[in-house]
Amino acid sequence: MSGENTMQRASSKQARLIRYALSAAIAAALAPGAVLAQESAAQQPAAPAAATADGKESATTLDAIVVSGTARFKGLRKRDASFSITTASLEQIQEAVPLSTADALKVVPGVWAESAGGSTGANIFVRGMPSEGDAPFVTVQMDGAPLYPPPTLSFLENSTLFRMDDTVERMEVLRGGPSPIFSNGQPGATVNFIQKKGGEEPAGSVRIGLGSDNFRRVDLFNSGKLGEGWYYSVGGFYRVTDGVRDTQFPADKGGQLSATLTHSWDSGEVTVYARHTNDKNAFFTPIPLLSRNNGSSLSSFPGLDAQTGTLLGNDFRHVDIPTGPGTRIRRDLAEGRGINLDVFGASMDFYVGDWTISDRINYVSGSAPTNGLFTGASPRRMADYIAGFGSAGTATYVNGGGAVDPNQQVLTAGFWVVDKELESFTNDLRFSRDLFEGNTFTAGVYYARYSSKDTWYLGNNMLLTAQNNARRIDLRLADGRQVTRDGFVGTSFFSLRGDYDGQNTAVFLADEWQINERLRLDGGVRYEWQQVDGTVHDTATVDLDGNPNTLYDNATSISLPTSRRIDQNDHHFSWTLGLNYKLNDTSSVFARANSGYKLPAFDNLRDGNTKTQEIDQYELGFKSGNNVYDLYLTAFYNKFTNSPFQAFLDDGTNFTTVGDSRAYGVEVEGAVRPIGGLELTLTGIWLDAQYENYREFTGNQVMRQPKQQFRFTPSYYWTLPFGDLKIFATYSRIGDRYADLANTQKLPSYDTLDIGANLHVGENWEFAFTGSNVTNELGLTEGNVRVPGAATGGVFMGRPIAGRSYLFSAAYRW
C-alpha cells in the first residue's frame, strides 16, 4: 500500500451518529485540572520498514509497527514483540482474494476459517482450540475495541458483524501472547481492524468493482483537514451480486457508511467514529455429494452442481412458518445471515501529569438474524420416502408441475429462523507511566455490558427435490393422512424465546521492561468478574390443529408464557509472561507462557454448561529479517480443560458434552526476495490436536481442523514507464479433517489456486484483477455434524468451497 494511502485520516459526514461518542470523548479529555500531552501512536518515531521487491513498505517486516497486544496502544516494532502477530495492509488483504471478512484470515498461520457458507456465518478455529463451530476463540475489534464482547453466541460470531471496505487501513491478528490480559481477555486470536483517519493533505478514492456472478460494487473514501487540529474521513460501499451459487435472487445486497472525526492538539488526540451497516447475505449449508472411499473422492450429486449449485431458490424464498396456534411469521431466505448494525466508538490518548491515559470506547446496537436452510439426512428416491409411511401416496409439486416422478431424489431440509437483537458497550481504560528508564507500568480496567434478545424456530423441515434450486413437494397418503403443508413436513422442533444480559468487569496490571538493548521482558495479570442473568421461556410440544392425520404439525415446539431464570456469577484470574531476546541486528527469539480462560456465555448456561474453560498456552518463536528475507517461526502448545460441545441433531436432540484437549504445532511466515522484483512468500501450520477425557471421543483428532495447511505466493513487480505492475498467484493446501467428534466423517484434503495482478498508472489510477479457485477445485470445509456417522449409500453431505470466480476493479485516488 502506498505511503499516501497509509497516512489517510478520518472525518465525519454523519454528525448525528457520532454525537454520542464525541461528547463522551471531549468531556473526558477536558476534565478539570487535567494537564494534557499527546502521545499518539501515529506520532511515535519508527524506523523505516524494510522494502519488499516492489519497493513498497511491507507489513510483514520486523520493523512494522503493531498496536494490538501492547499495553499502551502506542505501538511496538514486530522485532521487539514477544508474541505472534500477523499484519496486512488493505492492499495485501485484497491480494489474498478474500470472499468474506473471515476468509481474509487465511493469510494468518494457525487460523482456519470455514468460509464456504457465504459472506457471513463462518466457523473459525485457532491453533487446535476445540469448538463445534462459530468462532468462540476469535474476537474482532475496530481500533482496539471489541465489536461484541462474547466472541460467539449460537448463530453469531464476531466476523459476521464486520464488513471490509476502503476505510480500512490495515489488519492485525494476534494469536495467544498477552491477549488473555487485555480487552475482553480473548485467549485465541484477536483480529484488530485499524481505520483510516484524516491528515493534513486531502486524500480519497473511488473504486468500481465488476465480477463473476453479476457482481457489482462501488467503494468511496474521502479524508482531509477541517481546520487547525481537526481532521475527518468518510467512506463506505454498496454491493449487489447474484452470489457464488445461483440462488435465483441477489445473494448479497447492501452497504455501509463510516465516518471518523479526529482532533489533535499539542497535548492529546481524540478520535470518534460511527458506522452503519445494512447488508443481506444468503447462507449456504451442506449439500449432497457423491462419495467414494469414505469421502476421499468426491463429485457432484446428479442435478446439483457442487461448485455453483444450491438448494436455495425462489420456490421457497418467502414462506409462512407456524409459531403457535393461529400464529405465523413470514420469512425471506435472502435475509440469510445479514446485519443491520450501528457502531459508535472513540479512542483517546493523552497525558495527565506523568501518566499516559488511553481509552477505547465502543457501542454497538442492531440485529443479526439467521434465515437459512439446514440440511439433514442424505437424499433418497421419492418412492422410498413414501414407502416409509407404510401406505401408498400421491406426491405433487407445491407450485405447479404435476406429479413427482417416483425415481426423483428427495430430501428434507429445515428453514431455520433465528432473530437476534444485540446491544453492547465496552470501555478499555489504561493508565501508564515510566517507573524508571526502560520500564513502563500499566494499570487498566475493562468494562462490558451486553445483551441479546433471541427468538428461535429451528426445524420447519420441507420435503424438497435434491437438485439446483430445489422445489417443494406435497404428499398425501392413500389412508387419508396428509404428510405436508405447502411442502413442510414439520414445524419447529426447538422454539426459544430468551432475553439475556451480561456484565464483565476486569482489572489488569502489566509491566514492560527493556532491560538492555537486547533483552525485553513483559508480564501481566488480570482478574475478571462476570455476571449473566436472563429469562428463557418454557416450551411445550403440541399438535397445532388437533388433527392426528395432519402429520406436519403433530409435534410443534412452542414457547409458553412461563419462564425460567438464568443467574450466574463467575470470576477468574489470568496471567502472562514473555521475553524477547535480540540475537543481532536481524534476528531475535521470544518465549511466552500464559494462562487464560473462557467464561460460560448465554448459550452455555442455557444448556447447563456452567463450567469455565481453562487454557494454558506456551510459545517459543524465532524472528529474522532484512531487505532480502523475512522469517517467523512459532512453536506452540496449549492445554484445554472443561471444553463444551453442543449440536442440534437432525432428530431434534440437543446433544451436549464436555471434556479436555491438548494441541501442539508449528507456524511459519516467510518471504524471500532473491532477485529484482521477485518475491516468494510462504505461510502455514503443522498441528496435532486431540481430545482428552472426552467420553468415547478421547484420543480423536479435534474436529474440523486440518493437521496441516499452507499458502505459497510467488509475485513479480515491474517498474514501467507509465507506472508499475505486479502479478501474483497463491497455491493453497488444506489437509484432511474430520467433520465430527467420532472422526467418522472424513473431510479430504484439497488444493486451490488464486491469481491476480495490480497495475498502477501514474499517480492516480489503479487497476486490479483477481481470480479465486481458478482450477475449480472441489473442496469441503464442513460435513454434517447433525447426522452422526460416516457417508452412507455413496452420498456425503458436505459444504463445498465456491467454484472459480473473477473480479476486476478500477480505482481513482487523490
Tell me the total number of β-strands: 46
Mean pLDDT across all residues, rounded?
A: 89
Please outline the major beta sheet: 22 strands, antiparallel, barrel
- Radius of gyration in whole Å, from Cα? 27 Å
SS class: mainly beta
Q: Show unreliable segments.
A: 1-60
Number of alpha- plus pi-helical segments: 5
How much helical structure, as a percent, in the residues? under 10%
Coarse morphology: globular
Strand content: over 45%
Distance between the termini: 14 Å
Organism: Lysobacter firmicutimachus
InterPro entries: Beta-barrel_TonB, Beta-barrel_TonB_sf, Plug_dom, Plug_dom_sf, TonB-dep_rcpt-like
Keywords: Cell outer membrane, Ion transport, Iron, Iron transport, Membrane, Receptor, Signal, TonB box, Transmembrane, Transmembrane beta strand, Transport
Subcellular location: Cell outer membrane
Describe the structure.
With 814 residues, this protein is mainly beta. Helices cover 4% and strands 55% of the residues. The chain has 5 helices and 46 strands. The strands form 9 sheets. The chain has a 22-stranded antiparallel barrel. A 5-stranded mixed β-sheet has the order 3-10-11-6-7. A 4-stranded antiparallel β-sheet has the order 18-17-45-44, with no helix packed on it. Strand 42 and strand 43 form a beta hairpin.
